[in-house]
Structures are given as C-alpha cells and as structure tokens.
Design brief:
The chain is mainly β. It is built from no helices and 22 strands. It has two domains: 178 residues, no CATH class; 65 residues. The two termini are 34 Å apart.
Length: 260
C-alpha cells in the first residue's frame, strides 16, 4: 500500500528477524511496509464524546470531542491492531515483548486504551500526563493479535514514535528495535454554521449550528483588524444561541471550534 490507510485491517507489527526486533506495518491485504510508509486516517466516523465516568478522565473534559480508531471494527475507519510475528515461545524472558511509547508530535494528545465487556477502560499509553516509557507500554506475547482504541484530542497530523524491546531468555541480553515513527492524519469535523436573525426590538440573535460535543468560540470584530473572543461554549445540544443587543455600531462575527 502506498496511499493513506482509510479502512483496512492493519497492524502495528513487532517482528523478530535475523536476531533483531523490527517495527513495521502489516496490512492483511498488501503485506508488510515500513512504519512510516503511509498515515492512518482518522475520519469523521471516529468522532467521539468523552464519557462522564471518572475512569475516562484521561481523554479530557467530560462531553468534549475526541477522535479515535476504535478497538471494534468500523468499516469507515482503519482497523488498527498490534501484532507480534515470528517470535517462538520461550525466546524472551517472561515470554513477553514490550511496545513502548517514545514521543508524540502533533497538535494534541494521544492515548491508547482498551475497554472491557463491562465498559471499563484500561489505559496503556497517555501523552497528556507526560510520557514515561516504563509506564506507557503494552506487554505482548508471541503471536499476539490485539486491538485498542487509538485516541487523539485534536485534528491534525501526528507522528507517534514507538520502540519494542525484550530480554533474550537464553542469554539475558536486551534487544531493542530502532525507534519507529507511525503517522496519523486526524481529519477535522464539519465546520459549524452561523445564522443571524433580527428580533422585533432590533437585537441580533446569533444561532450556531454544530454537533453535540463541539467546543466553540464566537469571535467579533468591527474592522477586521482585530478579532476578540466574545464567548466560548461546549455544545450539549445541536445549536447555541447568543443574543447581541442592538448598539448602532457595525460588527462582524465568525465561529471556530477549539480543542483543549
């Protein structure tokens, strides 16, 4: 595959080849590729709202938007898992390989987590509270095939770097892969729509239409030279209404979505 991964079953794969750990992409249709060969696209089907349960606080404010490739298959998104290839049982101590988070470059935060059958999350990696490779890791067994939620707090381009390591059972030697950059392209949500109505008293009613969970800010200017934030609002409904008293002066408005 040469283009972005939009809706394929793919793995971040840890492979053992010629006495070395290697990180790569494995596409179940196209085979293996270098880790940075193409970006994984988080389309609008991956827009979510942060649950109110405290266990999900690592994703941000309850009710706010985040973007994710889910652990359950969605035909409109890449089905991204983590796999281990060509590692015989007993090769490494504890029969395990570690996949560690090294860095996150992008406009927001990254989190990797699983949700069990009871709806409870297990957090595995999180850049929001700082990266600690001893804590931000996934422990994998030979032949592992796992699926997680790959969550991002804001749209944009991300480069997420991982490293794999393990201790050889027979010698006690630590083997570590070369750090590998995986790319993610998080698409922005549809733009909010701003409508303007004039009341009988000549006051202005500004109506902003967007999706629930959007955090919007209204900016105003009289001359286009400087824009000032007039109000910020987290939508719990599909619209936001703002009353602007008649002042006799001219104003222009625009609305933007913001991501904490």
């Amino acid at each position: 595959m040469s283009g972005p991964a939009v809706a394929n079953h793919v793995h971040l794969q840890v492979a053992w080849r010629s006495n070395a750990l290697v990180l790569e992409i494995y596409d179940f249709e196209a085979g293996s590729s270098p880790a940075d060969a193409f970006p994984f696209v988080v389309g609008n089907a991956g827009i979510n709202l942060t649950p109110a349960a405290p266990a999900f606080a690592f994703l941000g404010e309850a009710g706010a938007t985040f973007f994710a490739l889910p652990q359950s298959e969605n035909p409109n998104l890449p089905f991204l898992g983590i796999g281990v290839d060509n590692v015989p049982n007993g090769t490494f101590s504890g029969n395990q390989v570690n996949l560690r988070l090294v860095s996150v470059e992008g406009p927001g935060h990254f989190a990797l987590y699983q949700v069990n059958a009871f709806g409870q999350p297990t957090l595995q990696m999180n850049s929001r509270d700082g990266i600690d490779s001893a804590m931000d890791r996934v422990v994998l067994a030979p032949g592992a095939h796992e699926h997680q939620n790959w969550a991002f707090s804001a749209p944009g381009e991300y480069e997420v770097t991982f490293v794999a390591d393990a201790v050889r059972q027979s010698t006690g030697q630590t083997f570590a892969s070369t750090p590998a950059i995986y790319r993610f392209r998080v698409l922005p949500p549809p733009a909010a729509r701003l409508e303007l109505n004039v009341s009988a008293g000549m006051d202005l009613n500004l109506i902003v239409q967007s999706r629930i969970g959007a955090r919007l800010q209204l900016l105003a200017t009289a001359d286009f030279a400087a824009w000032a934030t007039n109000a910020t609002h987290l939508l719990t409904d599909s619209s936001w209404q703002i009353n602007w008293p008649a002042t006799g002066s001219r104003h222009f408005w625009r609305v933007e979505e913001v991501f904490p």
